């Protein structure tokens, strides 16, 4: 299956990729196929055609669960710069550079979940599907707060940069230690 086919399948049947605690998963796959509209409605997914997938969106939609943890940890390190926030000097330096460029220190309150920045960045139809990748209790808590008003350009820069850096790190490329004069 190519990436576009995987994207369309994820868009149409996002519960196949859902966190195990979502209740809909108790239903049989045949029932979910036959009751697509009901399953979507019970999960808060409005019916619509898929948006055009970007590389970033496909990377998010088709990622393994551990990948989300790594992404959100990087986001937290960037937005909450603390002396021990990064695992190593290279990570710390990369996070500091991005934080200096974006000034995200006011984006998250101390108790805020960095996942809310993903919610703020994504269009509602994408968020309705992607949120299923996380525990329902976490999403319920998150969605009780209004979406933050942060510059869309800054959010796009933050997420695309973190996604690129994560992909580059996974492939063994590290550009964070390159000196910049």
From TrEMBL:
This is Putative type III secretion protein. The gene is rspD.
